[in-house]
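User: Hi! I'm working on a homework problem where we have to compare a predicted structure to a textbook description. Could you give me the structure for the chain below?
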Amino acid sequence: MNPIQEMVVNFQELAAQVPEILRPFIVMLAGAVPFIEGEGASVIGLVGGLNPIVAGIAAAAGNFLSVLLVVLFASRTRTAVVKHNRGRAAARNAALVPGPAGYGGSPMLEETPPARRESKGQQRFKKWLVRFGVPGASILGPLAIPTQFTSAILIASGTSRGWVLLWQAVAIILWTTVITVSVWAALTYVVGV
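Assistant: Happy to help. Predicted C-alpha cells:
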C-alpha cells in the first residue's frame, strides 16, 4: 500500500467513527468555511468515504448557504450606508450661508467637499468587473478569493442580490462538480481506493 492509499484508508477509518447520517452535515459545514468552500469540502467527503454525489451536493449546499447569508447581510449593510450618506449629503446641501460681499447678500449653497479618491485595488476591481461582468467575476473569482468575499464585493459595488446569487450558484455548482469528479476519478483510477 502506497502512502496516499494509507492516508486515505486512515482518514476513512476516522470518518467511520462519525454516524453515517451526520457525515453529509459535516461536509456541508466544511463547505460554508471560506477557503475550504464546496471544492475542499467535497474532497473531504470523498476521502471520508461518502458517495461522490452526496459529497458534492452537501458541499455545494453548505457553500451556497454561506454565500446567501453574506449577500443578505452585505445588501442590508450597503442599503443602510447609502441611505445614511444620502441623508448627510442632503443636510449638507440644504444649509444656507450668506453670499459673499458684493453679491447682494443672496444665499448660496455650501460647497460640498471633493469626493474621496478610489484606491488602486478598487479601480482594478472595477476594471475587472467591467471587463468580465458579474458572470466572469463569479466564475473566475474562486481561483483568487473565496466566493463569500466575491459576493460581498459584488454587492458592495451595487450589483443586485438576485444577479449575484444566480452567478455564485452557477460558479459553486461548476467548481464543486469539476473538483468532485476529478478527485473521485483520481481516487478510483489512480490511487485505487
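For your comparison, note the following. The chain has one domain: 3-112+119-191. The longest helix spans residues 52-94. Good luck with the assignment!
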